[in-house]
Design goal:
The protein is of the alpha/beta class and 341 residues long. The protein contains twelve helices and eight strands. It starts with a helix and ends with a helix.
Length: 341
C-alpha cells in the first residue's frame, strides 16, 4: 500500500514538474483572443508575418536605406537612432521591424540566426530596398547583425553593431577571458545563462519559478552603470509602454525565445567571419561603452583583435544605453554612412 501511495505521489510530482516547464501558448496577433493587428506586415516564405515601421525620409528619394534591429524586450518602436537631424541632411530612410514573437510579428518556434537574417533579407526585398542596404543592430539585435554578416554579406552596404550581446560559449574566446567576464555578471544571471545554454527547455521555468532569482535583465533589474540609470529614468515612461507592446503575445516566444537563441549553441563563431567588404565599398562598425554591465568590454576588445576589419568605437564612461545619449545617434550614423569623409 505504501509503495502504491509513493508511486502515485511520484507520478503526480513528475506531472506537475512537467507542466511547470511548459509555457502558455502564444497569444497570436489577429487570432480570436489575440491582440489586434495595427502595423503594416509582410508575409514571409513560411507563411509567418513580420511587422515593420518606416522612419526618416521617404524611401523613393532616400540616398541611404537602413534596417534597424531592436534589442531584448523591445520592438520596432525602439528607433531612437532615427531622431538625429542628420537623417534629413543625408537623406536616410529607416525601417525597423518586430523580431519573431515580438510586437505584431508571428512567433517562429524554429528560429535560428540564419532564419532571422533571411527574414530581414525578405523584408528588404518586399519593400524594394535594392540589391544592397545597411543594417544596424542594438544589444541582442547585434546578434542578428552577426547572422547577416554570416549568411547575407552580399546584400550589405555596411553594418553597425551597438553594444552587441555576447555568447560566452563562442569557442573563439580564450577560456580564462570568457570565464573572467562571465563571473563579473550577477550570480543570478550566471545561473540563468547557464540554464539557457545547457538546458534550454528549462529557460521558461527557471525565469518564472519563485525559488531562485531569475535573469536580472528579463525581470527589468539589469546591471546598470550611472549613465544607464540616468538614461533609463529619462525614457522610463516610453520604455514601459513599448515593453508591454513588445511582449503582448507572451513572454516565451519573445524574451525567453530570444535568450534561447542568443545564448544557445551557435552553428558558427563570429570570430571566424571573413571580411565582407574587401573591396572597401562598405564597412562594419562596433560601438561599446567601457562601463557596460551587461556586455563585458573585455570580450568586445578581444573580438575586434580577431576581426581587425571592424571599426571599433569604445566610449569611456558609457554603459549599455549610450545610443540614447544626446548626439550619439548622429555619430553612429555618420560613421556608418560617411566614414572618414
Amino acid at each position: 500500500m505504501l509503495k502504491r501511495i509513493i508511486a502515485i505521489l511520484l507520478i503526480g510530482f513528475l506531472g506537475w514538474a512537467y507542466q511547470t516547464t511548459r509555457p502558455l501558448p502564444p497569444n497570436i496577433c489577429g487570432s480570436s483572443e489575440g491582440p489586434p493587428i495595427a502595423a503594416p506586415r509582410i508575409k514571409l516564405r513560411d507563411g509567418r508575418h513580420l511587422a515593420y515601421k518606416e522612419h526618416g525620409v521617404p524611401k523613393e528619394i532616400a540616398t541611404y536605406k537602413i534596417i534597424l534591429v531592436h534589442g531584448f524586450g523591445l520592438s520596432r518602436h525602439d528607433a531612437a537612432i532615427t531622431t538625429s537631424e542628420i537623417v534629413e541632411e543625408l537623406g536616410v530612410y529607416f525601417v525597423s521591424f518586430d523580431r519573431p514573437g515580438y510586437g505584431e510579428s508571428d512567433p517562429d518556434p524554429k528560429q535560428t540566426r540564419k532564419s532571422v537574417a533571411l527574414d530581414l533579407e525578405e523584408l528588404a526585398d518586399q519593400l524594394e530596398l535594392g540589391s544592397k542596404f545597411y543594417v544596424i543592430g542594438f544589444s541582442m539585435g547585434g546578434q542578428v547583425v552577426w547572422g547577416c554578416l554570416k549568411y547575407i554579406p552580399h546584400r550589405l552596404a555596411g553594418a553597425t553593431l551597438i553594444a552587441p550581446v555576447i555568447n560566452y560559449w563562442w569557442p573563439g574566446f580564450p577560456a580564462n577571458l570568457s570565464k573572467e567576464a562571465y563571473c563579473q555578471q550577477f550570480p543570478q544571471d550566471q545561473w540563468a545563462l547557464r540554464v539557457t545554454h545547457y538546458a534550454p527547455w528549462l529557460t521558461y521555468w527557471w525565469n518564472t519559478q519563485k525559488w531562485f532569482p531569475a535573469s536580472s535583465v528579463a525581470t527589468g533589474r539589469p546591471k546598470f552603470c550611472r549613465q544607464d540609470i540616468e538614461l533609463a529614468l529619462k525614457f522610463a515612461g516610453r520604455q514601459q509602454m513599448h515593453k508591454a507592446y513588445a511582449t503582448q503575445q507572451g513572454d516565451f516566444e519573445s524574451i525567453y525565445r530570444d535568450m534561447m537563441v542568443g545564448f544557445g549553441r551557435w552553428e558558427f563563431d563570429p570570430m571566424d567571419l571573413k571580411e565582407p567588404f574587401a573591396d572597401s565599398e562598405g564597412s562594419v562598425h562596433l560601438w561599446q561603452g567601457d562601463e557596460d554591465g551587461l556586455v563585458p568590454v573585455t570580450l568586445q576588445r578581444y573580438i575586434v583583435t580577431k576581426l581587425p576589419w571592424i571599426h571599433y568605437h569604445e566610449l569611456p564612461g558609457a554603459g549599455h544605453l549610450f545610443p540614447y545619449a544626446d548626439g550619439m545617434s548622429g555619430a553612429i550614423i555618420k560613421a556608418l554612412l560617411l566614414g572618414d569623409k
